[in-house]
């Protein structure tokens, strides 16, 4: 197993740190950024497959049954990485599915399970690639981008960078591509010598980053970018799966609030579960609904949740009409 990986050219780093600049603010920034890189110059692999992690991956698949294929793929990738002597690296996944299917939540839970740093970069309405590759130094507010920030502040060579809603990147229809900087980062050979435009004299290895992008639709995503990802279509949860998720989230809510758990029954009645399965749209609604449901039950001086405690949608800020005959997609975010 590889213990330490030097991910940058120290000679370049020392050279730019010694370079004099007439701009004091710029010199201070360069020194600060160079110091961050130097502090974590020797990196190590995380996300190394162990028997306990294999069990946790199975649990993750059970918690997110509509992501079973994604977990199977990652498990195989990690088995290969273990045989090669390192951790999971340079995975490039694109998760496509309706809003509320749990894409971002899954990514965050995966990063926590793997034990590597992660960052979610919202691509919604970005207009340039500066959010990834940094801002040029002649600008007074120049800052490194997400790739630099994630690697410079981490002891790991293979963090997870989540690109949320890449189908909503602003500007495609206006002749420029705010995801232009992503193309070279998703090719291993060019990612090995990446540089942030805020610190252009220093190349470093970004080829071990694990990338997970999310989208509601593939239609706006350009073909050259799409070809760089392994694409998974995330379906909405079935009725039975939704029922299990609601029951689990209710149990976790009580587990995380022991004082509340001592005042209320530990399981939801079947008739309450039936109504929630029918009416809830997403997990964002689910969490809000369960909290209000418990609160209304306790307000009534009861210890068992009943259908009487289910609030109307406006009471929890939910869209739509509770009790509407229209069936909404099932899922969670």
What does this 3D model show about the protein?
The chain is α/β, with parallel strands linked by helices and 333 residues long. It has two domains: 43-233, P-loop containing nucleotide triphosphate hydrolases (Rossmann fold), CATH 3.40.50.300; 239-315. It is 41% helix and 9% strand. The protein has 14 helices and seven strands. The strands form two sheets. Strands 4-5-6-3-7 form a five-stranded parallel β-sheet, sandwiched between helices. A two-stranded antiparallel sheet has the order 1-2. The protein starts with a strand and ends in a 34-residue tail after the last helix. This is Lon protease.
pLDDT < 50 stretches = 320-333
| Total domain modules | 2
Strand order of the largest sheet: 4-5-6-3-7
User: What is the alpha-carbon Rg in Å?
Assistant: 23 Å
Descriptive terms for the model:
alpha/beta, ATP-dependent peptidase activity, Rossmann fold, AAA+_ATPase, two-stranded antiparallel sheet, 14 helices, disordered C terminus, 9% strand, 7 strands, 333 residues, Lon protease, EC 3.4.21.53, elongated
